[in-house]
Structure formats: structure tokens, C-alpha cells
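The protein record filed here:
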Amino acid sequence: MNVADSELVESILKREGYCATQNMHAADAIFVNTCAIREHAEEKVHSRLGIFHKVKKERPEVIIGVLGCMAQNLKDELLENKPYIDIILGPDSYRSLPDIFSRKTKYNGNVVDTKLSRFEVYDDLFPSRKEGVNAWISIMRGCDKFCTFCIVPFTRGRERSRSVESIKQEAIEAVANGFVEVTLLGQNVNSYRHENRKFHHLLEEVASVSGLKRIRYTSPHPQDVTEELLSV
């Protein structure tokens, strides 16, 4: 899911004329897209931020940003312990990045936007993908299960789904760009529902895309497995 979100962020910035680089020493901005589910993932983020802090010391004008679930969950800790971080954005705030960049040229303080949305699904934005076989397609965001061991509803918000038409169009474009497989993504992917259409309807539509050889999806919840899904 973080791969899909990173591709989405890249797409948003490319629309505004920015380009990606793998060389952090040449970058004007460096982002870490984070996960808050696993402790080891958080430890890796802290380690990477230490490296980026050194870059910031050498080039104070570089913008350092933390995106995603860890930003949502640990924003206060990050602000207190890592004041060199310029931008902290939750997973529903990526659209604001270009505006934040323009504000940063006039304002030197931290910018924090971690407001969760009941509606944001980035339905009109398609990711910027590298070449490959599999295309990750996010079909929904958030989760309503509130399992005792899981923080997702608090870091990614409540469930909301993209339209079938938008998801199918993204699959069509992925195939046109050389991808032969798609993986449909959701925190609880088979609870997908948009208007009166459910997950099995979506699978049927995506399966009709010409040239698509394989469909995967993750992660399903046993509670939402239906006879209709099993029959697709």
C-alpha cells in the first residue's frame, strides 16, 4: 500500500512540474512514506531520518517530509524530537503538497496536516508508475473493523471506496502501459462498496479489461467473504 501511495504522491508532484530523483544529495525535497503497523518499520524510518538530517545540515534549504501513517500517529513525537522535519502529512493530505511547497518558500516553520477525511479517495488521480509486470491499484481507503490489535482506523480513517469506473480506467491505462497484472489494494479489500456495487461487481468489471492476464487483491477479511465473491 505504501508503494501505491508513493506512486500517487509522485503523480501529484509531477502534475505541478516536479520530477523525481533517486539521488538525495541532488533533491530539493526528501520524503519518507511511512507505516505505523509494524515496530520494525518505525525503527527504519527513524534511521532514515537520521541520514536525511545530515543532508539537511549540509544543505539547510532541503525540505524534509514525513508522510503516511506514522506521520498521522506520531506527529507530536516527531515535532518534539526531530524539529528539522519541515512537513508532516497524513495519508489524506497528499493533494496539499504543491501548495505546501509554495508556502515553504515564504514560511520557515513546520507544516503539519494530518486531518482525516471521510471522502478522500484520490479518485481522479492515477499513480506515476515505473515499468514492471504488476500495477498496484488502491480501490479504497481506511477501515471500519476497529480490531483491538490494529491502529489502521485511527491512522487511515474510516472506510470509503473509489468508483468502479475510475478503478477500471486505471486498470485499462496500466495495461496500455505494459502491465499485465494488477493487485487491488484495500485495508479490508473485500468490504469494498461504492453506491450499490460491491467487491464482486468490481472484480467482474476489472476482469473484463482486455489484455489483463491476472488479478490479485489484498488484504481480504473473512467476515466479508460472500457467495457472490466466491463465484466470480
Remarks:
- The radius of gyration is 19 Å.
- Residues 1-113 form a domain with the Rossmann fold fold (CATH 3.40.50.12160).
- The chain has a mean pLDDT of 93.
